[in-house]
Amino acid sequence: MVKIKIFSFPKLKKAGIITVSLIVMLLLHFCTSNHEFKGLKNGDLLFVTAKESGLSGAINNVTQKQKNASFDHIGILEKGNKNFYVFHAAPKGGSQKQPLKDFIKEQAQEGQKVVVYRLKSQYQNAVPEALEKAESMVGKPYNFNYILDENSYYCSDFIERAFRKDHIFKLEPMTFIDPKTGKTNEFWAEFYKKKNLKVPEGEPGCNPNGLAGSDKLERIKEL
C-alpha cells in the first residue's frame, strides 16, 4: 500500500489569505464609496452650499432667492460605466473634469455640502449635448471678474453655456445690491474697486441660486 504524505505550505496559505483579504477590502471599498452615488444620472447638477462669509457669503447675499437654496458653486455630473465625474469651473483649476469623489471631498474640507438637482423629464434630451459642450470647455481659465467673456468662465456661466443651445437657463441682469441696505454690497464694491472695474450692476450674467430656482429643475437629494 502506497502512503501519500500531505505537505503543508503555511507561507503560501498565509499569502493566499492575505490576497483574499485584500480583494474583499477592495470590493468593500468600491461598494461603499459608490453607494452614496447610487441613483445619480448623467446631467445631474451638483450645487454646493454657500458659506456665510468671504466670497461665498457675498455671492449668496446678493443672489439668494429661496430659503432652502443657498449656493455658491455648481457642476454637472457625467456618469461613466464605473466612474463619476464633475464638469465645473472653479478658481482652482479653471474649467475642469474632476472625479466626483474628489469634488465632494474638497467641499467637505470647506464645511460645504453638495445637493443634487435634476432636469425634469421633458428637458432630459438636452443632457447629451450639454455634456459634449462641457467637455469642449475644459481647459479654459476661471473668470475672476464675473463679467461674461468668451475666454474664461465662472461656475454658473459654465453651466448656462453647456445648456445654452436648448435654452434651459437664461442670462439675467446681475445685481450686487445688499437687500438689507439697498446699496451695493460692501464686499463687491471693494472687490471691483481693487480691479479698477465698475461694478457690473445690471449686466447679463447668472449665479448658482438663480439656476437652482429654475422651474425646469427638481431637487433630488443631498450627497
Q: What structural class do helix, strand and pairing data support?
A: alpha+beta
Helix content: 25-40%
Identify the quaternary structure here: single chain
Distance from first to last alpha carbon: 68 Å
Short account of what is shown:
It is built from 7 helices and 8 strands. The protein is α+β, with helices and mostly antiparallel strands. A hairpin with a 3-residue loop joins strand 3 and strand 4 (94-99).
Description:
The protein is of the alpha+beta class and 223 residues long. The protein folds into 2 domains: 11-39; 41-222, endopeptidase fold (from Nostoc punctiforme), CATH 3.90.1720.10. The protein is built from 7 helices and 8 strands. It has helices at residues 10-35, 54-63, 100-109, 127-137, 155-162, 186-194, 208-212; strands at residues 45-49, 71-79, 84-90, 94-99, 114-119, 172-173, 204-205, 217-222. The strands form 2 sheets. A 6-stranded antiparallel β-sheet has the order 4-3-2-1-5-8, with helices on both faces. It has a two-stranded antiparallel ribbon with strand order 6-7. It is globular, with a radius of gyration of 24 Å. Residues 24-33 have low confidence and may be disordered.
Task: Describe the SSE topology.
Blueprint (H helix, E strand, L loop, with lengths): L9 H26 L9 E5 L4 H10 L7 E9 L4 E7 L3 E6 H10 L4 E6 L7 H11 L17 H8 L9 E2 L12 H9 L9 E2 L2 H5 L4 E6 L1
Antiparallel strand pairs: 1-2, 1-5, 2-3, 3-4, 5-8, 6-7
Helix pairs in contact: 4-5
